[in-house]
Each structure stands twice: as structure tokens, then as C-alpha cells.
Amino acid sequence: MAGKENAAPVGALGVAGPRLTRAAAKRAAAMAAEGPDDAKRRRVALGELPALANNAALAPSRPVKPSKPASRPARPGASEACGPAAAAEAERCASFSPPRAADAESNSASYSPPRTTADTAFSAPPRAADAESNSASYSPPLATADTAFSAPPRAVAPADLQLSGSYASDIYTYLRSLEVDPQRRSRSDYIEAVQADVTAHMRSILVDWLVEVAEEYKLVADTLYLTISYVDRFLSVNALGRDKLQLLGVASMLIAAKFEEISPPHPEDFCYITDNTYTKEELLKMESDILKLLKFELGNPTIKTFLRRFIRSAHEDKKGSILLMEFLGSYLAELSLLDYGCLRFLPSVVAASVMFVARLTIDPNTNPWNTKLQKMTGYKVSELKDCIVAIHDLQLNRKCPSLTAIRDKYKQHKFKCVSLILVPVVIPTSYFEDLAE
Amino acid sequence: MATIQHQAKPAVAAAPSTTTGGGQRAMDLYEKLEKVGEGTYGKVYRAREKATGRIVALKKTRLPEDDEGVPPTAMREVSLLRMLSQDPHVVRLLDLKQGVNKEGQTILYLVFEYMDTDLKKFIRGHRSNNEKIPAATVKILMYQLCKGVAFVHGRGVLHRDLKPHNLLMDRKTMALKIADLGLSRAITVPVKKYTHEILTLWYRAPEILLGATHYSTPVDIWSVGCIFAELVTNQPLFPGDSELQQLLHIFKLLGTPNEQVWPGVGKLPNWHEYPQWKPTKLSALVPGLDADGYDLLEKLLEYEPAKRIPAKKALEHPYFKDVRKGDAH
Questions:
Q1: CA distance A334 to A149
Q2: Is it the case that residue A121 has pLDDT exceeding 50?
Q3: Which of A156, A164, A167 sits opposite B214 (nearest CB)?
Q4: Catalytic annotation, pick one of B87, B95, B161, B180
Q5: CATH architecture of B29-113
Q6: Which ranges carry the Protein kinase domain (chain B) (predicted)?
């Protein structure tokens, strides 16, 4: 019943384009159902895409300014939809709180938001809508680090050679010392030890949604990993109400984007993607609080930092297959971000375990670990076993099965559909035996 | 033999703290004495710490007109300085004050150790007196610069704006420190795509001028080479006033590169047919160095980035032989 009712609006939403939070998605769906406004909504939505794409693609400073006016018209359109959409949503779902009422209540200092509102705050848009909007929406050429790997200019090779020869080992040694620095690492037990309201599942929902935001704004992979790292580091020290968890997520992503991107999204863009649940002032206040807590130590190594090096080094001799390895490795590494339990593993352990599982997936009949990998990563396979099992479980959908942003992302052709590759269900015990010296 | 004067190393300072408080709070702790310059993103003041009388450099973030929160350049500089400040050849970040101004905007004060001059002023002073910097002094300064750059690169950071103005000095000790990391970047191995338009023009590497976005540590080495030449002659080596003029200036003096001296140059985005100049001898361009000095300079100014000598290898070059003796490693 409900499914059938949702089918048509979702189709319309797919045409409409950019993903928003669930509330905005419902609003857009309701608007699409009403004939006269459908065209208007579609025009507004389509107008957004070039601006967003331009934001991602343009060089910094001057060119960024003109794009802001282009993105603004979308918001009045969205706010115009508020009235009828809210009414429609109220009829459809009794537990949904009207946005205005929720806003008023959240402004109260003593107010503790109802669970449904809080859950809504970090729910990602419906899956089906995502899938359709992915196929329907404008897909500009990728400017991500992954693209750089896809077709590296020849000029890269000489620089690589020099880096490998002179500084790569220095840098790796330093990164390994950084990742164990208690000031740059999150606690692996903060949900139990520090948080009273935030749960591991809420964190997973947030991560899943942030993957979509990073896709939406075409952010490089490092930005996503740093974002999650800042979220975890903040939650390791500060207990947070669930109503602020999404704010922490977007403020962390704002910081990571400023640190990492050539042209970071604006604060307004991050408010928009939360369906304006938070004001710009709240966002910038949270930014300031996070920076204060992190003591501006923003450059901690992430899973991606190590994975990049491992894949490149391991596949020096087989250039042809590196692309599949890149995407499969990225897919598995992003899955590990969903799992709070993976925080107990060092980023380099996760990256090495990802190498193992990716190689296993590509060639199940060969032991994925070898002396070269052991030497390069510094890990014996027995040291990786627990993490390998955790990542393998994620790949087999044994954990976080309902959070599909990452699986959906890597179903796309541009990522070689790596999330659809058949996975060996059992890892042979012999693969976990340490290699003979 | 000239050696670097090593002052006794001070006790390791406590890690910089972050103090909450308004802009007013920060200024309660420090007395601004005079404005001494501008960094990548803000004004720099000479100031006195009221509690101790210590003289410091206070760097204040420039507030963007459209309030976007903390500027990316400030975030990068502070973050990277956290990784690098322990090296004696990188300027030390002593403290960080974060608060809000009257309009409620976030404002940052970075508190640095004070250095009384920079290499730009030092060179200009010698130029205006019509005197060369002594060869021994050039060597000591260059050795410190290479040590600082080797450390920064070894930590996985590109500076991307090395120039005399960003190299702070103490006149008495001839200590030299790298400063202004506002345009710096953590690098990855392998390199990935970076902003194209970075680096002050005169010290900008040819691969950047030719539009490469996948560049790495060699861009800083090129800057080191330009600084080396300037220390010897008191004049900038390649003073171009536009990107094209900068390229032409380099090509006129070092010869127009081709696929033999720089494989792949023809495929860089901004490459096209340039006038074919032949290289001039470095000894004519930069009179006043010995043979080892010219050999090092040549290696710093290699066209092909992969062949440009890394800073840590430069430290082993024969040119620094007598300086290394004094280095207590």
C-alpha cells in the first residue's frame, strides 16, 4: 500500500534531480504530485545543478562569487513548497512533526526533541529515489582523486619516481607515528564511555548520509575520510545530543573541505543540504567548537592515506588492473567507515585489511597476502585477521545492511560496479596463517 | 672554516594551547607594538606578552567580508605548523587564541616566536649598500634553508610559497626559519591534483607555469634554486611580471626546454611553440660562486622535476662540506 503510493512520487523525484534530506525529498515528491507546480519545481531543481557543478569545478576566489546568485533561486522555490508539502506530509504520516513546530521547539533551551524528529534528522533520503536521481541527474566529468588515478597524465610518473625514491619512506614512517598519536585519534569506545544519547547506529546513519553529501558536492575522497575522523574525535571528548549530530557532521565536512578541497562548498551549501535544519550561525559556531577541540590538528592520516600508498606500491608491476583495485579498495574502505567497531583498528590496519579483502575478491583462489605486502605494510596477516573479518562481513552485507549509500555509489559504472562483484563467502583458514619466513 | 653558530637549544616549549576568549581577551594578554607585515591571510604585529615581557609576532586572521568562518589558509597553516614547528628551521607557533569580534565573527590570533628580519630585507639591505653577501653567509643560510625544506618535505608537506619574504632571520645568529605556511599542502604519495595558481611568480616552478596540476616537492626546490641565485647576486633571477613573461624569462636564460632535457614537457597544458633560446652558462647568470656552488645550483634548477635534487640530497652536496662539519647530528 504505502510502497505503491510512494512509487510514483519517487519516479517524479528522480527527474527532479538533487537529493536533499528526507523531509525535503517528501516535500518535493508531494509538490511533484500536484500538476501545476510540477513544472516550476522541475525548473528550479534543474537550475541548481549547473551551480553545484560549477562550484565544484571552478578555480578558487573570483569565479566562485558569480555562482552564488545562481544557486540562490532554488531556495525560495524550496521554501514556497513548504506549505502544501507540509500539509500533505502531515496527512500521510501522523508521526511526522511539521517543520515549523519542530523548529520552534528546538529553539527552547530545555527542549529534548522526540525520537522521531531526531531520527528524521539523520535519515538519508529514500533509496529508490537515490537510485533514480543518480541515473537521471546531470553527471559532470569527475574531478576527484579517483579520476586522477583513472587517467593520470604522463607528468605524474616522474614526480612519483622522485617521491618514491626520496621521501616516500620518510613520509610513511611519519604517518604511522601520527596515526597512533592519542591527540589525533578517536577513542574506540566513545559510544559507551562518553556518549549518553548518540548510538553507534546513529553514527552509521550519519556516515551513510555524509557519503551522499560528498557525492552531491563532488568532494575528493580525503575530505570524506577526514570528516568522519573529526566527527569521531569530537564525540570522543564531548557528549552530544542527537539533535546536534547532523550539525556536527556538516560542520566537520565544512572543515575537511576547507582543508582539503581546491574550492570548498560554502557554509550555505551545507545548511541547504540539511534542509536548513541549522542556521549558518549555528554551523559556524560548531565549526569553531570543533577546531577548538581538535586544536587545529587537521592533517591526521586516514584509511585513504595508507590505502593509496599500498595500492600504488603493490600494483607497480601490473598497471592494467590497478583501476579495479582502486575502486574495490575505495568501496571496502568506505564500508569500514560505517562500522563503529572498526574504530578499534588503526587506519593503516584497516587499509592493509582492505588490500587483503580486495585481492581476495579479485582472485579467491590465491592467498591474497604475500611477503611483499607484509614488508610494505609492516603487518603479518595474523595481525589483520579481526579487521579482515569485519570488512568481509560488511562486504557480505552482514552489518549495516539497511545503509546502502556506499553500495549504491559503487554500483555505478564509473566505479566499475565493484559493489556487485560476487564475494567469496568463506575465507580459507590457510589464508590466515602467517607466511613462512 | 665558517660554521653555523648553534645557540643552546631552549627547553622544549609546551605544546601550543588553544584559549577560548574574545578578541579582547587575546589583546588583554598582549600589547601590540607595531604592525610589521601581512601574511597570506592576515596582518602581522610585533607584540609583547604582558605576563612575561617576551616579544612575539602576532598574526591576526583577516575576516572575509562574506562570513565563511575560519579561512582555509588559516586552517592549513595552523594544522601544518602543528606538525612542523618542532624543527629549528620552521618558525615556532607558540600559542593560538580563538574568539569572536564585536560582530560575532570568529577571529584567530596566531602567536609566533619573533624573528627580527626576513631574507628579503636582508638581501635588500645589502643591495642598497652596494655590497655582496659574504660567500660563507650565503652557504650558512642555504644550508639552513635546505634543512628546513628537507624536514618539511619529509613530513609530507609542500610549502608552495617559498620566497625571501617568507624566510625569517635573526640578524645576530644568522638563524633562518621557514614561515607562512598558509599556502602549504599536505601531500600524498602518489601525488594528486592540486590548485594550479599557487606560488609567487618569480619563484614559481616551470611545471606550474606550464599548467601541471600534478606537482610535488620539486616545486619548492625550484624556489630554493631561485633564492640561492638571489643570495649570490642580490637580484632576483627570474623577475617576470606575468605568467607568460615568467616563462619566457626562464627560457631566455636557461634555454627553451625540449623533449630531450624534459621528457613530457610538450604535453603540459600550457605548452606551445616558444622561441628557441639556447642556455646561458650559470656562471654568467650568477657570478660569484665556486664550482661546487654552480653544480648545486644547476641541480636545483633542473627543468625535469624528477631530476631536480631533493633537499635532503642537497644537504649532502660537496658545496656544504665545510658547513656540515659544524652540524652536530
A1: 17
A2: no
A3: A156
A4: B161
A5: 2-Layer Sandwich (3.30)
A6: 30-320
